[in-house]
From TrEMBL:
It is a multi-pass membrane protein. Keywords: Antibiotic resistance, Cell membrane, Membrane, Transmembrane, Transmembrane helix, Transport. This is DHA2 family efflux MFS transporter permease subunit. GO terms for biological process: response to antibiotic. Its main location: membrane. One of its GO terms (molecular function) is transmembrane transporter activity. It comes from Streptomyces botrytidirepellens. SUPFAM superfamilies: MFS general substrate transporter.
Amino acid sequence: MGGSPVLRTASSAQRSRWSALAVLCSGQLMVILDGTIVNVALPSIQADLHFSSSNLAWVVNAYLVPFGGLLLLAGRFGDLIGRKRVFVTGLIVFTAASLLCGVSQTPAMLLASRFVQGAGGAVASAVTLGMVVTLFPQPKERAKAIGVYSFVQSAGGSLGLLAGGALTQTINWHWIFFVNVPIGIVAALLAGRMLHSERGVGLGRGTDVVGAFLVTSALMLSVYTIVETTDYGWHSAHTLGFGAAALALLLAFLARQMKGASPLLPLRVFRSRNVSGAMGIQALMVAGMFSFPFLCVLYLQKVLGFNEMHTGLGIFPVSVAIGALSLGFSPRLIARFGPRAVLLPGLALIAAGLATLGRVPAGGSYFVDILPALVPLGIGFGLAMPSLATLAMSAATPEDSGIASGMFNTMQQIGSALGLAVLSTLAASHTDALLGHGESTASALTSGYQFAFRSGAGLVAAALLLAATVLRSHATPQRRTPAQDAPESVAENANR
């Protein structure tokens, strides 16, 4: 009457996996949102806490530096002591720091809380993709799960702009942090109940304390150097000195990994051309793409005169397009044609969308000049992100999935920080040069944004070239019937 015990058990295991995915993605969405939710609230924060113009950028940077620096270390600790333990710890730290951010009454307290918040976000994010891959071993289900994860990753930034504008305008800036508290508490409690506990490979395999210090210092110093170029410039002694120090630390780390008996980052992860290529493509793509929300916000507000709410709504179509592709269409395409075949047109669409934005006029119209560029951007990113995540994790073993996940997220953070610093500097210097020649403010600003958008399109075009020449196609996995899949899922669940 109720079906066979094997099929009922398989159905229960499947529901459990998707519920666990929902918990993972809710925590990840909260962390990703906080990377951008503060952007539209910065003027209110500056007026309320009396930030100086030079220190205001650190409301964002104090989050980015520890976030980008700790991903790799947190990912490896997930492999060693268990990814569930690391994920829940990260959520608790992030939630507590969000509460401190919300009650902050001085710049120093807010910046210190943002640093801790970035550290907690890194710890939770680093192991998420590895847990997703482990939860869904079957190719078809894994493609769907990675599509959901990729939607959260890519659309979270746009949703953050919308949520930040709504909360700041309707209540106050404190609530962009307070909103994390109930979500974080519920996510941590559900994660404790619903995620599978794993012991990890154990600290007895070696923690490589020296390697951990070297790579964390190198990554934090790299992100710090990049974000500070807006104040010091690319050719300053500050940038060159700190950049050289970060490079020296990174080289020392790599040398140690090649010789160490228990490396923090096993270099075997990079033996696959598809894995190594996906990491490089990820950095180039996000360097070109992730500066788009920042630059587009400036164009909509400073040139077209949009307010915070209208700005968030204006960029929201990108999230809608990403969701439509990532959650439904992309997983089926990847399962049918393979991730490389889906990635290539995705990158081409992103480059086309950025090139279209590179032609926006000073007296532009949202529906004529902006929206036609946002649609290919959203579709392209909805195709590209799940494909890249699939490629990056394609050779990861259960023992290495945490470090592979952390590495994938690290490349995203380094790429986005570098792209934003470079492209925003290009836009500002181009604008200043035109203002010096007597151009109007609107015309000079628009020309600067155009130049940055076109440069971003060039970076994505480079990613497309790399993908076409480095990545290899794989045969499409053989289709399996539900009857074939069910016993395997049951056996896998029993083994856990």
